[in-house]
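A brief tutorial aside. Many learners find it easier to grasp structure tokens once they have seen a single protein encoded end to end. The record that follows does exactly this for 3-oxoacyl-[acyl-carrier protein] reductase. Read the sequence first, then the structure, and try to relate runs of similar tokens to stretches of the chain.
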Amino acid sequence: MSDLEGRKALVTGSATGLGRSIAVKLAERGADVVINYSRSKADAEEAADTCRAAGAQVKLVQANVADPDGCRALAAAAGEWGGLDILVNNAGITRHARDHADLDALSKADFMDVYEVNVVGPYLMLQAAKPLLTAAHQATGRSSAVLNTSSIAGVKGIGSSVAYAASKGAL
């Protein structure tokens, strides 16, 4: 029996990159996984196929975590399993403006887009998932886990833009 056998996980931003790797590793360790994507259904389906090959049940949900309705849709998908053991807030975006000294290189709208997905999104997702995390804990007696993906950019002020560094520092 794998160490996460029977556990239910939701990984935001899990169609590609780090989120996909996290979702696959959770599946390999026995968890069932909700795969979230914002743009590429094809990438999400590939991630889902890899998780299924590891033996996981998988749900695919297209949603923007900066939208409360999107977070509720993700939570509802996990809710079909009766609870949620693991929430990984991984979805993130950036807007490129590498010269951090040039404050005019990034508009307020771009800054807010990054902040809403990278900072507000995890808050909204936790708000939507909290009843499921609580239900799983009460049903099994096992602890639930919430993981937020940050970046060295949040500590060092480096990266693609001031908005990205600020958002990762906020996490």
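Self-check: The helical segments are 17-28, 41-53, 68-79, 108-140, 153-156, 162-170. If you spotted this yourself, you are ready for the next section.
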